[in-house]
Amino acid sequence: MSTATVLARASRAEWGRIWSVRSSWVFTGLISCAVVGLGLLVGIDVANNPESVPVGASAWEGARFTAMFALFGTVAMAVVTSTADHGTGAIVPTLQWTPRRGVLLAARALVIALTVTTLGVVLVVAASVVVRTLAPPRVGLPFGDGLRSMGDIVVVLGCGALLGIGLGLATRSTAAALVLAIALLLVLPLLVAQLPFDWAATTSARLPGSGALFLIFGEGPLDDMTVTSARLTLAAWALGALTAGGWRLLRSDAGH
Q1: In degrees, to the nearest 5, what angle opens at C-alpha 118 toward C-alphas 112 and 123?
Q2: How far is CA 214 from CA 42, 235, 256, in A?
Q3: Is residue 92 part of a domain?
Q4: Coil, strand, or helix at residue 160?
């Protein structure tokens, strides 16, 4: 059987595994409520304070705040779906069904990353539409701004998903991977940036959370941060985590 055929079969199995458990539907519901709900709050605030909205304002900018909720939600969902069968012991029949571990790794990373990233993007777009619906008429939803905003958000969510998958595969523990993901994306970037040392801001800028914040809000711990540097930082962490997780999947016993 060709590698492409096995990959397609494994991808279908991964898709079915994601949506066959209740936790995936719970995460989807919670993320949807958080992201669209925040968009609703932003829209109501703008509607109640129209004088604070400049002419030519874009609803995409208001909805950017929802991207952080989408990021943490999609990363958490990526972690849970990548570690679920390790926690239950179902990884053993999974490997019996797909004994080529490299193919399983590719299918799992591809399907989970595409699923949670697509979910996050759809919800941020929905939040932007909600903001536009509630905001004054002068607040637009220009297509060009949408492409630029969503381009950055796709990078953030995609890299965040791969980071979560890699941490999940490396630790094989939902709790440990979630703690590491939260630390890297939120706690450490903010904590390190507050230290009174010259190296602190530079170190903070090299963490994935700072890259995500810069792409979403345009601000970071260093004044010379750029879109390119932020994207490279996120990509490097995502690739590093996925490499570590892939190495453990390929090289160590599934039961340990």
Answers
A1: 130
A2: 20, 14, 38
A3: yes
A4: helix
Q: Read off the amino acid at residue 194.
A: Q
Residue 189 confidence (pLDDT): 93
Domain for residue 256, yes or no? no
Show the tokens assigned to 12: 């279908």
Structure-token pair, residue 160: 């965040």
**Of all helices (H) and strands (E), which one includes residue 43?**
helix 22-48
pLDDT in the model for residue 1: 63
Position 137, amino acid: P
Query: How far is it, in rounded angstroms, from Cα 211 to Cα 163?
Result: 13
Phi-psi region of 2 (alpha: psi -120 to 50; beta: other; left: phi over 0): beta
Measured CA to CA, the distance from residue 78 to residue 18 in angstroms comes to: 10
User: By residue range, what is the domain housing residue 48?
Assistant: 3-251
List CB contacts of 215: < 8 A, sequence separation 6 or more: 152, 153, 155, 156, 227, 230, 231, 234
Q: Rounded to whole angstroms, how far apart are CA atoms 250 and 101? A: 6
Q: Are residues 76 and 27 in contact, defined by beta-carbon separation less than 8 angstroms?
A: yes
Query: Which H or E run contains 109?
Result: helix 101-134
Which residues of the chain fall below pLDDT 50? none
The pLDDT of residue 252: 77
The residue with tokens 């996120």 is 234
Q: Got the DSSP string for 244-255?
A: HHHHHHHHS-TT
The CA distance from 70 to 126, in Å, is: 12
Q: Which residue has the tokens 């879109």?
A: 227
Domain count within the chain: 1
Q: Report the DSSP beta bridge partners of residue 58.
A: 140
Residues 58, 124 contacting (CB under 8 angstroms): no
State both tokens at 127.
């939040």
